[in-house]
Amino acid sequence: MPMRPSHALRLAALGVATASLTGGALLSTAPESAAAPPSSYAVKGIDTSHHNHDATGQPIDWKRVAQKNAFTFLKATQGARYQDPWFARDFKAVSATSLLRAPYHFFDPKGTGDGAAQADHFVRTARAAGYSGTKAGELPPVLDVESVWVNGKEVCPKALRAGQLDVFLKRMKAAFKVTPIVYTRASFVNGCMAGKGQVFKDYPLWLARYGSGSREPQSVPGAGSWTFWQYTETERVPGVPGAKNTVGKADRNVYRGTLAQLRVLANLDGTPAPPRPGTSWPTVKSGQRGVDVTTVQLLLTARGHAVKADGVYGTGTVAKVKAFQKAQHLPTDGIVGPQTWTRLVTTLKPGTKGTAVTALQHQLTANGHTVKTDGVYGPATTTKVKAFQTAHRLTADGIAGTNTWAALVRGGGGGGTPGGGAKLSDAQAAAKLKAAGISRVSSGNCTDRNRKNCTSLEGIRVGTVDGVIALKKKSGCKITVTGGTETNHAGGTYSHWNGYKVDISRTSCVTSYIQGHATKHHKRGDGAWVWRVTSGGKTVVDYADERWANHWDITYY
């Protein structure tokens, strides 16, 4: 961003200085957090100011920039009087391209009460250039809040007050009828705002973190994580003029979402922008089992905290989760909640390989979109991702981003009780079975789980329902459910009541398939022979032949 010499800016972002102040100087920065590298995010853009013209005095070739970028932010103003000399020209030229765009203001207070004056200056300048905030292709305006340079030193703005920022943001929002974006970094909030970033909590964040590797910006205290990530200020960008006819350098950014989602933010067609990190994620913790646990384990391994992916949330997994949380500067409670989920998941796209892809494939299968778990994001996985996205009204782009991950782990294999598995209501389960051509019957013609003559699906695990659907698809048999989660079955962890078991009619087709694809294993105490399916040394399914009741009692682990 502007007003800072490149070298000093890069040093601050790389963590050379911390969040303490001496004589107003920002001397250091908080540690960054591990994440996917910027290259893993598909939607990229740049931000510019007069600095990008200074070397040559030449205009930027925005049509060329648009060939490899989706968006740009342009410096418009600083303080209560300064206007960037290139803003109006750049904004006009950008508006003639496919680039999504918005102006930004560098907050530079000269008094403790000039927030309104700065806002009014910015609004006048942006409007004069043709920006309204609501036109097609226009992104929300940006407030840039960071340290300033005084006598060759990077320091906290002495007159900075949270109240000023609140006034500016509200004034900007009222003027343009859109929620602004805030550019800052955690080290600035810690060092110059005493760690009190609550004034930014209701705004999308654009955070900086430069350097190589895959370490994302640290979350802003009181405000949260990033929506845009500025990952370098020195990338060669075709279209930006450089000295001696070279390709010039510019700040480069990525967006945490799909292009369709960004287009919505820019008043164009598409789907809603991705949810702010920390929403709509399940909680996975010690003692649980299931595909969500396996997903956590595989993602931990992908993040460098290798652990056995056995689907059991034991002490080894707890230790690895805590180590990951510590590295991320999160509460080290060993529980995978919203904050930990958003740090674990990574945007995946066709061509990617590794354990994170394996985790994705496990989730797809758990959600009824069965695919081979080979760790390769090939055509088959892409097709299944698109099918899942379509079914959940997401942008069907075949890229597993934040929204897709959140929907997968919310609706997939869960882990709410020992043995794991998200649970469904009776209506949800019945709808899934009906869509697959599976019926249910009961002697009482009812679905009340508290009546023994009913067949209820209330509280049945997703994995159990998906298992029955898979059985129908693989066997080609007619499947009729005769028992579910209703009372009067045997108790225990892996019970009907807990959603692990289901009874289906004992037809010759079903019996022939089970006995041809499972191994006869042992006889239960009630005399029923159990036919077992295992994978990797673990029991996956038990089929108990209850001939006297004319049904198969099936347990999905």
Automatic annotation (TrEMBL):
Name of the protein described by the UniProt record: GH25 family lysozyme
Xref: InterPro entries: GH, Glyco_hydro_25, Glyco_hydro_fam25_subgr, Peptidoglycan-bd-like, PGBD-like_sf, PGBDSf
Region entry Disordered, spans: 268-287
Keywords: Glycosidase, Hydrolase
PANTHER family referenced in this protein's UniProt entry, alphabetically: LYSOZYME (PTHR34135)
Family, similarity comment: Belongs to the glycosyl hydrolase 25 family.
Domain Peptidoglycan binding-like: 289-344, 354-408
Gene3D superfamilies reported in the protein's UniProt record: Glycosidases, PGBD-like superfamily/PGBD
